[in-house]
Amino acid sequence: MPEQTAASTFPDLDDRDRLSNATVDLPIEPLIKIRARRRLDLINLREVWEHRELLYFMIWRELKSRYKQTLLGVLWVILQPLLMTLVFTFFLGTLVRVHTGAVPYPLFLYAGLLPWTFFSNSVSTGSYSVLANSHMITKVYMPRLILPAAAVGVRLADFVVASLVLIVLMRYYGVPFGPRMLLLPVLVLEITLLALALGALLSALNVKYRDTGTALPVLLQAWMFASPIVYPRTYVPSKWEWAYQLNPLTGIIESFRSAFLGLPINRQGLVLSGLVTITTLVIALFVFRHLEDEFADIV
């Protein structure tokens, strides 16, 4: 009886050969996907908040490593918008003579370049955040939105430092601090959300379509000149005013100038920029959520 039981339990050599040579057809789509639990078909912001310490660590790590072997260090944060201000002041303020009313052109220009530099750098680095951290995506789980959020957070720290130059310029030209500066936290939040939305959207698209990163610098350069950064909105023809107002940076940048320099507030542009920012953020979160399951397989 024991010999019969052993023979019935273990297959003979011929059966083993047939089993080893057998082929199994695997399904194209995975039967089970391991992912975090989500109540809605959008990014779980509560989960992102629970990983906020990881976000702080990534921001601090990037800030420490960026200027580790540089001669000027953190001064590059100030020099970037300052050098651009000097170049545009010479060509547009001196040669072309762009009229900015009672506001000196260098001050007018820097007040526009300050938020634009933060926005463009955030979108640029955010678009590569997923690819740059592919080693983390393939090894550990974390909310993927933290990657573009960390890129924006680093640039936000640069924005705070570069704002000190604008305060110095205001004191130099005798521009007083007014009550409209209380609007600055709202404006910083709005442009941060807009940068995060575009950074997350482009980072997801850049994983699947690598030519997204190639076209982005050209698009940002065109966007700069389509916004009231180096010239006032009065230079825009009246027939294109409606399209110009749909640009979310129009209301944001003009409101920054209003807050710092005491200029009239473009309420219509500010409201439209807020609506466009919220709409862009919702679309970006939806697209990011739809594509993030494929990140680990593609990168």
**How many domains?**
1
Radius of gyration using CA atoms only = 27 Å
Mean pLDDT: 84
Calculate the terminal CA-CA distance, rounded to whole Å.
Answer: 58 Å
Largest sheet report: none
Number of strand elements: 0
Strand and helix order: HHHHHHHHHHHHHHH
Fraction in helix = 55-70%
Overall morphology: globular
What is the structural class? Answer: mainly alpha
Tag the structure with descriptive keywords.
single chain; mainly alpha; 15 helices
Helix/strand layout:
Layout: H1 2-9, H2 13-20, H3 45-50, H4 52-66, H5 75-96, H6 105-127, H7 129-132, H8 134-137, H9 146-172, H10 184-208, H11 211-225, H12 241-245, H13 248-261, H14 267-291, H15 295-298
Helix pairs in contact: 4-9, 5-6, 5-9, 6-9, 6-10, 6-11, 6-13, 9-10, 10-13, 10-14, 13-14
Description:
With 299 residues, this protein is an all-alpha fold. It has one domain. The chain is built from 15 helices and no strands. The protein has helices at 2-9, 13-20, 45-50, 52-66, 75-96, 105-127, 129-132, 134-137, 146-172, 184-208, 211-225, 241-245, 248-261, 267-291, 295-298. Helix 4 (52-66) crosses helix 9 and helix 13 packs across helix 14 (267-291). Mean pLDDT is 84; it is low at 1-8 and 36-40.
